[in-house]
């Protein structure tokens, strides 16, 4: 909403994988890890379409520290009938809903992006 070009966040394996998933699905231009002084950071370059429209309009966080949201593979929610993606934390790492269904894996439903 602020029309920023990039977002800088502290590095973690989960954030790095989330950035890669968003790049693969066309929501980010690129995501990279950099060493800044004594700590690692993730730099996510946001993607915009013509007329300065962002590639995604909303991110809905489903699983929170106070309320974890686990679903088996057959109950992983679809995001707007497949036009968005649902990120699922599985035993194989972070996957999109389509990848989790293909590999027949359920897990913690982290967020939805559309």
Helices and strands, with pairings:
Blueprint: E1 6-10, H1 13-24, E2 28-36, E3 39-46, E4 59-61, E5 70-71, E6 85-90, E7 93-96, H2 97-102, E8 107-113
Antiparallel strand pairs: 1-3, 2-3, 4-8, 5-8, 6-7, 6-8
Give your account of this protein's structure.
The protein is built from two helices and eight strands. The chain has two domains: 55 residues, Ribosomal Protein S8, Chain: A, domain 1 (2-Layer Sandwich); 57 residues, 2-Layer Sandwich (Dna Ligase, domain 1), CATH 3.30.1490. It is globular and about 40 Å long. The protein has 114 residues and is α+β, with helices and mostly antiparallel strands. Helix content is 16%, strand content 39%. The strands form two sheets. Strands 4, 5, 6, 7 and 8 form a five-stranded antiparallel sheet that branches. A three-stranded antiparallel sheet has the order 1-3-2.
Order of helices and strands, N to C?
A: EHEEEEEEHE
- Taken together, the total number of domains comes to 2
First-residue to last-residue Cα separation: 14 Å
**Which CATH architecture of the largest domain would you pick?**
2-Layer Sandwich
DSSP strand count: 8
Mean pLDDT, all residues: 94
Range of strand content? 35-45%
Name the CATH class of the largest domain: Alpha Beta
Helix/strand-derived category reads alpha+beta
Oligomer: single chain
Number of helices: 2
Q: Which stretches are poorly predicted, pLDDT < 50 over at least 5 residues?
A: none
The percent of residues in helical segments reads 10-25%
Sheet with the most strands, sense and barrel status: 5 strands, antiparallel
Spatial extent as radius of gyration: 15 Å
CATH topology of the largest domain: Dna Ligase, domain 1
Morphology: globular
